[in-house]
Amino acid sequence: MGYRIVDPDAIDPAPDRPSECRKLSDPAGLETMAINRFRAEPGEELPLAYHYHDTQQEAFYVLSGTLAVETPDETYEVPSDRLFVVDPEHPQRAYNPADADEQVTVLAIGAPQADDDVHAYDPDDA
Asked: Where do Basic and acidic residues bias regions lie (predicted)?
């Protein structure tokens, strides 16, 4: 199976997420990277928590809307058609601000695929 087409809308959203998350990696047969499509309404977060990874780099490509990404130093605004990259060991929380005018749609890519290297981050403990 050298080629695949995956329709994200044919994949059920992941349960118990703060926004719509469609996990594309398994249906695409990907083993070394994680790819998710998020749709977040105003006030919704993309990840489950403010967090960081030991080894995984994350990239957020904004398909529509404007993504906010909180880091310990500042909050970035990432407009449509831009890519935001997070290196390992750097905390972040991606979300659609409560005062946003529209939903934000984001393609999130993480490599290597590492579900067990995620850690919650509390900025009050830093």
From this structure: 14-25
